[in-house]
Automatic annotation (TrEMBL):
InterPro entries the UniProt entry points to: NIF_FeS_clus_asmbl_NifU_N
Short name of any one Pfam family annotated for the protein: NifU_N
Domain of life: Bacteria
Lineage: Bacteria, Bacillati, Bacillota, Bacilli, Bacillales
MF (Gene Ontology): iron ion binding; iron-sulfur cluster binding
Residue ranges of domain NIF system FeS cluster assembly NifU N-terminal in the record: 10-128
SUPFAM superfamilies, alphabetized: SufE/NifU (SSF82649)
Family: Belongs to the NifU family.
Listed GO biological process terms: iron-sulfur cluster assembly
Organism listed in the record: Natronobacillus azotifigens
Protein name: SUF system NifU family Fe-S cluster assembly protein
NCBIfam families, per the entry: SUF_scaf_2
Length: 146
């Protein structure tokens, strides 16, 4: 597949998650809720996580922002659901590596997240892409401190 075709496919995946977000909404009961925003561009994410027995039982998000920010949140919630917390954090670390342009070699299924790899070419957009991931890391830290 040519670079132009791959780039077009990745744009389609991003726009699909933006227009048809997965896991949009909130969780009730004792879900962890973290609010994060990117004051540079106005992106705002509220992440809801349900963690049981060291597994991400469920993940949902609400928010407003650009296509990169919201599609990244959609992709993240898809990929971390059902994972052990440590694996979710490892995926977050891999995503951070992708955002700084590192080549990654992993057996972990990253799902649609690979579609965001072109964001590293636009440093101002990296904060948009990582907002939901930082919220997840903060939620896990908060849960571990409780």
């Amino acid at each position: 597949m040519s670079f132009d075709n791959l780039d077009s496919l990745y744009r389609q995946v991003i726009m699909d998650h933006y227009k048809n977000p997965r896991n949009r909404g909130s969780l009730e009961d004792d879900a962890l809720t973290i609010d994060m925003n990117n004051p540079t561009c106005g992106d705002r994410i509220q992440l809801h996580l349900s963690i049981e027995d060291n597994h991400v039982k469920d993940a949902k998000f609400e928010g407003e922002g650009c296509s990169i920010s919201l599609s990244s949140a959609s992709m993240m919630t898809q990929v971390i659901k059902g994972k052990e917390v440590e694996e979710a954090l490892k995926i977050s670390e891999l995503f951070s590596d992708i955002m700084i342009g590192k080549e990654i070699d992993t057996d972990i299924d990253l799902g649609d997240i690979e579609a965001l790899q072109g964001v590293c070419k636009f440093p101002a957009r990296i904060k948009c892409a990582t907002l939901a991931w930082k919220a997840m890391e903060k939620a896990v830290d908060q849960q571990e401190q409780d």
